[in-house]
Amino acid sequence: MNNEQTRDGTWKRQEASGFFIASWQSLEEALVLLAGTPERGQLVSETVSALRKAQTAGDPPPRLLLRVLAATAFLSDDRPLRTEQEGAGAMT
Question: Could you tell me the superkingdom of the organism this chain comes from (predicted)?
Answer without folding.
Answer: Bacteria
